[in-house]
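User: Run a structure prediction on this.
Assistant: Running it now.
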Amino acid sequence: MKAVSLDELSGHLLSGTATELTALLPDGIRQEVGHFNVFDLADLSPNGKPAAGYPPYPCRAYYKISLMRGHSRIQYADKIIETKGDVLLFSAPKGPYYWHPLTPPAGQFCVFTAEFLLPTKSGVMLDELPIFRMDAKPVFVLTGGEYAKAAAIFNNLHEEIRSDYAYKYDLLRNYVLELIHLGQKLQPASVLHPAHHASARITAQFIELLERQFPLETPRQRLQMRSAKDYADHLAVHINHLNRVLKETTGLTTTRLIEERIAQEAKALLKQTDWTIAQIAGSLGFADVAHFSHFFKRQTAMAPGSFRT
């Protein structure tokens, strides 16, 4: 079966004549061509074969996300990957690839420019995402569940682009971001978190874990993790390593960060609830009011009762 570049397929659609585009483009998006579009490969592959005569697409201005089924050979830069089954592919303007279908092609893909996902619109910098790095391997073989998730997002893209909803392009951006994050979650952790960012990653994981302990909503809740060892064990790192990393990135020890966050919650509970001081002390994991009062006074230079009034 003839090899066909997805750049050629999308190039035919996005640089073709108005007559050619009319038959394939969804209604109402003529002015949006070049920013975002989504296609089913069946529309481009009559009789199950890639259509011949697609002109080259020299202007590689488009990012692409493709969901393909069947037996294929994918050439990306100097790598050749043969896949059987369902695959999700990502391509950036600087990383062209060629798709060689070895069985009748089936699938769908979307194309978009960097402008479509400007940080002011999406909050992301495309070229900084691991999925679009030049040294990334942007081809993922999917399980049945992963394929179902990706196919559902593509179905949403097809449905929404044909809608007359006034804010549909905002919604389309969200769907594209879902596909990007789906792909990034399929990457190894070593790709998502390079070694030189390991300290920042551990710090972020610690802060996220700490914040997940709060807020305390009822006096029956109990703080689950109170010590540096609790957090080190949960993060599967040695306590000394966690202390060293947090000291390096925040200037504070693990214990100091935990105590400051507990004190912050104690202040909120004292000012914003009618819980007794004993209830607050119990929820925050203190054995009794005396221990809590000593802790609170050390943190704030005030007794809990004085702070509340």
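Residues 6-192 form a domain with the Jelly Rolls fold (CATH 2.60.120).
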